[in-house]
Amino acid sequence: MKTITAIFRFSCYWGYKDLSYEDFALGLRSALQKDKSALDAGRLQKFTGPQLRELLKWPRPLPLEDERIRLLHEVGCELEISFGGKASNLVESCGNSAVKLVTLIARHFPGQGFGQSKDIASITIFADYIVPAVLHHLGVLRYGFSVASIIKNDNEIGSGSEEEVELRVCSIYAVEKMRELIKIKTGKQALSVELDLWLWSYGIQCHSLQHHRTLSIYY
């Protein structure tokens, strides 16, 4: 159920070595293997913090736990009201269109799916904390003195702050310009999601990479 995993994925894991995307994914997988109804809409609406921790095998309160629980309740309620309680119905209703899927998610869950999308080229990158750091490492982005100092000293950048928004927006712009250059030089059309995956994969293997630190449920 990708709609659900997104709630857990969009989180910066700095400061928690055993709280990575892989840990979350394994927790969800294990829960569903033991109980296929573990993430049913009705149960999502009743989730508590301790239950979420037990599902993920996490020993203490999660970062921004109350907000995560609120979103789980929201997802469960909206799936039940609008999509018969199934995330698969949400995905099927988009007709293999990535743009329609994003629109539906934004409309019904104001707070990704499976299958082939015929217009995936219309979707840009996921501007998290890894991609901006990789772009800077490769010399594509240059930080201003203030932002560079904050990142170097491992200080937190506020969620929704001017600095955070600029980092993410500039990353999106940079990758779209990269797409244009690839098209000009090779004649081939690279997808933003492909570049995103390459940059992200490169970043998680570069252990010396310094990224910005923002406490957020969105990445």
From TrEMBL:
Family the entry assigns: Belongs to the QNG1 protein family.
Entry protein name: Queuosine 5'-phosphate N-glycosylase/hydrolase
Gene Ontology molecular-function annotations: hydrolase activity
Functional summary from the UniProt entry: Catalyzes the hydrolysis of queuosine 5'-phosphate, releasing the nucleobase queuine (q). Is required for salvage of queuine from exogenous queuosine (Q) that is imported and then converted to queuosine 5'-phosphate intracellularly.
E.C. code: 3.2.2.-
Enzymatic reactions: queuosine 5'-phosphate + H2O = queuine + D-ribose 5-phosphate
Signal peptide extent: none
Keywords per UniProt: Hydrolase
One GO biological process term: tRNA modification
Any Pfam family matching the protein: Q_salvage
